[in-house]
Structure formats: structure tokens, C-alpha cells
Amino acid sequence: MTALISLRGVQKYYGTYHALRGIDLDIKAGEFFSLLGPSGCGKTTLLRTIAGFEGLSDGTLKIDGKDMSGVPANLRPTNMVFQSYAIFPHLSVAENVAFGLRKSSMSKKEKSAAVKEALDMVGLGGFGGRASHALSGGQRQRVALARALILKPKVLLLDEPLSALDKKMREQMQVELIRLQRQVGITFILVTHDQEEALVMSDRIAVMFEGEIGQMDDPETLYRAPNSRRVAEFIGKMNFLTGVVTTDGGTVSVDVAGLGRAELPASQVPQGTVPGKVSIGIRPETLAILFDGETTQRRVVDATVSEVVYYGDMTYYDVRIAGVESALTISMKNLIGRPVLDVGAKTKVIWDERSLVLLPA
Ligand code: ATP
Predict the structure, then answer these.
(1) Residue to probe by mutation, ligand 1, list 43, 189, 193, 194, most atoms within 8 Å of CB
(2) N or C: which end of the chain has fewer CB within 10 A?
(3) Which proteins does it associate with, and in what oligomeric form (predicted)?
């Protein structure tokens, strides 16, 4: 597999500030790839170096096999959609989209056909004559997309494109962006600080911290098998416990403080696991409350409810367990006939060795 975009040892300094600290990255043609991380981790800087708006301090960037050093942004096979959309309010929707073609040698007729195609693609067919200043946030976003897509770039770079939209609109646009990306087959690189957005949309995600990539994987692997505590903390909710690993031949066991001892299935044992202290992650949805009248074959431990947060479809419980340092969070579906427990309720918590995520201590 040859990568469409390939970065090796990329470093970026702003004066003395070290913004990118050795980025190695291969992005495949047709991939929906996300750069995810907290504010200031360098994801926008990385996107801008791919676009050609920032130079590299060191390392190499190749797109489609060609070294990009010295190649200006407008000569790269990339196009960027900005957070602010940069829609010209005095131009119509069609004129805004056609702006992308201003340097093209297409005839007027070809241009107007291309504009129509781009507007149809983003669900704005028939909106060409509209005034741009009267558009909703979601419509402006679509115009910006159409303007970027009309140039048929190999790579579309998206810098937090949905962050200005309300929650409902954002969720709708996420689904539409995925559909659009599959339809046009262009490689999308999305910058976002919203982990849910990255999980929903991406084929693969690079999680960045302080100028470095902490982990790069498909969404399911990232969620199920984070390789460090900071990745585990950044993606979804995670409880952390302490434990001690022991090995005996091929079997790896872990003694989890407050819960007990369990033999780990091979799939739960990260490479390079050695005996000794570990940090253990447990997702809230992989624990469960054992409600009165229910039974289980799985392991249970006594607990006391210390906090209850009701979400309608779900309830999040914090519970205290003897020997566990901090409260554990458990998410439960509010099924028919299942009560919502009160703070102070004595209950039992079900746990399973398959949900233990071993992390470096
Ligand atoms: P955010 O989500 O807040 O946009 P980010 O992960 O995209 O964050 P960047 O915008 O890439 O982060 O910035 C990374 C670091 O580099 C930040 O500390 C920022 O202040 C710094 N930085 C970015 N651009 C410049 C610049 N032109 N000059 C100096 N420092 C900069």
C-alpha cells in the first residue's frame, strides 16, 4: 500500500516553541482520517503544514509520492475548509461556489454545470440564486464544502468544520459528511477536539498530545484498547483502578484493588506486559448494577451508590466499593421495570475480566 500522504520526522517550531515533535504518519487514498486532541496539541498546525500554509522545520511531507517542500499551497492537490467558512456575503450561493473556479480555464457553461453538480452534492440543489447572507449555519457549511469540492482536490482538509453548529445540526452534518466522503472518494482529513465526532466519522484517528501522536488506530481499537492513560482519559469515560499483574507460564492474572483477582484473556494482555503494578481502566458501560430480582453468573462486588445522574435513556451511577480509592462510574440503560436507585442505596456491581484495560502504571 502506498500512502497518499506521508510524513516522516516532521518537526515544527514557532520561534522557540516546539509545536510538532516528530510526526510520522501515512494516510491512505480515500481514507477519512481525523486528528484529535486537546486544545493546543498541534492538530491545526499539522493540518496547515499538509496544506502548505506552514513550512516544516524538519522532516519530509510527500503527497502522492511527491515531496512538497517548496510547493506552495495553491499548487498542492489539497483544499481546505475553514471553521469560519469564509463565505462572501455579497455574493450569491452559486457565485460563492464558483469562486473556487476563478482561476480555472473552464468555459462559462462548464463552470455553471460544475457549480450545479457541487451544490447537488452537498444537498443545496436549487439554492444557487440565494443570497449568502441569509443562510443558516448548516447551509453556510455546505456552501463552503461545495466551494472546496468543486476543484476536485485529492485531499480535503477540514479544520473543525462543524464546531459552530448546534448539537442537532452537527450530528446531521456528521452523517452527511460521511456520506459525501464515500460518494466522492476524496481523502478527508478532519481536525477536531470532539472525541465523539472523531469516533463517529473516521476510518482512523491520530490522537495528539503536545505535538506528538499518542496513538493512531481505528475508532473501535482506540476505544477498546487505548495504549496509555491519557488516551483512555481523552476518549470516552474511563474508571481507573490499581492492580498487580502476575504471570505464570502463559497465563496472566491481575489482582484488582477492591474487585479481586482475575485471569486475563489473551486478547486483553498488551504486548510487553510484565509482572508488577499496573493501572487498570474500566469503561462505565462494561460495569453493571445488579438490580433486585436479577441474577448473574458473573462476578459481583458490594457497593454503595454515591451519586446519580439521570439522562432519560441512561442513568450514570457513581458507586463506592471497599478497597477502591475513588468512586466508580457505571452507566445503565433505563430499561422498563428497572428503578432508578437513590444515593445511599446498597447494591451489587457486576464486573468482568474481559472489560479490564491494562495500562502502563
Ligand atoms: P486548537 O484546538 O485550540 O486550535 P490545536 O491543537 O489546533 O489547538 P495549534 O493551533 O496547532 O493547536 O497550536 C499548537 C501550539 O502552537 C499552540 O500552543 C499555539 O499557541 C502555537 N502556535 C500556533 N500557531 C502559532 C504561530 N503562528 N506562532 C506561534 N505559536 C503558534
Answers:
(1) 43
(2) N
(3) The complex is composed of two ATP-binding proteins (PotA), two transmembrane proteins (PotB and PotC) and a solute-binding protein (PotD).
